[in-house]
């Protein structure tokens, strides 16, 4: 990719803006264990379902001949309010990036719109993003790891893919960013992602920029445009 100034930051939400990806995966693991009677552990749940929209998750389970119904996915989309309040704090120092004026910013998440609005409100991210800057998996035909959501977000925000940077925590999201032709960086500030195995998998995708704090992300953003 040729050198191009970054104009648009595209954020994932779960695992990037807030350390919530583990909460959703634990929820899905519990359902898989109890509803489907499958002895999946957390690592296996993350391997098959991490970082993807529920639509994509269902397609993966269908391909594995694991059948789910509407009731299963309604439960998968629910976290009790107490869990959400405790687990949806904004990532440390991310507000310093939200406040930067030299970049336009938006969110492109694998969650559905109604659930995402609630997450933004609980986390306080709605102070920095209005709904015209929030793009969700139910707005496109194919979720991550397909590039559709990132391309849709860039188009609606008025930027070319080469002018965008994607900040992702999941392998599925990183694959989507790369497929969209966007600069893609990995954020591994959450405990579940900051492992040698996961970092090795990220590097195998060809991603060299891997950060475990938003201080490092901010520094990279500012120096990349010099």
Which terms would index this structure?
226 residues, alpha/beta, 6-stranded parallel beta sheet, 11 helices, 11% strand
In short:
By secondary structure, the chain is α/β, with parallel strands linked by helices. It has helices spanning 21-35, 42-49, 54-63, 70-76, 81-87, 94-98, 113-123, 148-157, 171-179, 196-204, 214-224; strands at residues 8-11, 104-109, 134-136, 164-168, 183-187, 210-211. It is built from eleven helices and six strands.
Explained architecture:
This protein has 226 residues and is α/β, with parallel strands linked by helices. Helix content is 45%, strand content 11%. A 6-stranded parallel sheet has the order 3-2-1-4-5-6. Helix 1 packs across helix 2. The longest helix has 15 residues, at 21-35. The relative contact order is 0.18.
